[in-house]
Amino acid sequence: MGRRRRAIILLLAAGGAGILAVTLIGGYSSSVAESYGRLQPVVILTRGLAPGKAISPRVAAASFEIRKVPERFVPAAALSDPAPAVGMEVIGVLPAGSYLTGPVLRVPESDRPEAPRLGQGRHAVEISVSGAGALAGSGKVDVLVTTDDDRGGGRTLVAARRVPLISVGQDGRSEVGPGLTEVTLGLTRSQAIRLVDAQTFARRITILPPAGG
Questions:
Q1: CA atoms of 91 and 53, how far apart (whole Å)
Q2: Across the chain, what does the average pLDDT equal?
Q3: For residue 49, which of 39, 38, 59 has the smallest C-alpha distance?
Q4: Rg of the chain taking only CA atoms, in angstroms
Q5: Dihedral angle computed from the Cα positions of residues 163, 167, 171 and 175, in that order, rounded to the nearest 10 degrees
Q6: Are 86 and 55 in contact (CB under 8 A)?
Q7: Contact 104, 79 (CB under 8 A)
Q8: How many CA atoms lie within 13 Å of 31's alpha carbon, on the beta-carbon side?
Q9: Which domains does the chain have, with CATH numbers?
Q10: Which residues contact 151 (CB under 8 A, 6 or more apart)?
Q11: Can you tell me the distance from the alpha carbon of 7 to that of 4, in angstroms, rounded to the nearest whole number?
């Protein structure tokens, strides 16, 4: 057999082996995709981040990398893009190689709305009230209590004036009763006793912005 013919046979054999390898790899990839799902982009940490670390564009560029991972291994809260993390800060230790997920991030303390100062002698107390759906955030409110009288009517009294409103829960989602909303107020001890007691007998407890703003 001549050298030319031998070289041609070797080239054909190498080509056939290459085609076979590509076919096997393709079949293997299809099998993996069927077993573990399609590849999804996820953000992976290329270096660890400590708790409280603020994520600036520079930190994101140096610490994050987008890779494709079978969907079976991707956590539900994993981020596919590092952009939403910019401007946030890290809650816990994030080691290199871990996924970047939403629950490990929070708004920096300097950007959070400041809670109203309760003042000396006041405590945060949660009560269920009516008509709080129009109120949001924080500020000062008056607390009104409506009671029944012997003639089937009722009267409304101001039980507390200009108390700090700390937070408002979801409208109509109080466990005490339907249509009520849980709010957290900054109350003195006597106000707290009066209002907690009123929840057991009052027809309605309402909070409103104080008269005169």
A1: 8
A2: 75
A3: 59
A4: 32
A5: -90
A6: yes
A7: no
A8: 6
A9: 39-110 (3.90.1210.10), 123-208 (no CATH)
A10: none
A11: 5
pLDDT confidence of residue 195: 86
pTM of the model: 0.42
pLDDT digit string, tens, across residues 149-189? 666 567 888 888 888 888 877 655 555 556 678 888 888 88
Assigned token pair, 176? 């005490």
Three-state DSSP class for residue 106: strand
Least confident of 34-43, 86-95, 104-113: 104-113
Helix (H, G, I), strand (E, B) or coil at 176: coil
Residues for the chain: how many in total? 213
Q: What would the two tokens of residue 60 be? A: 């994101």
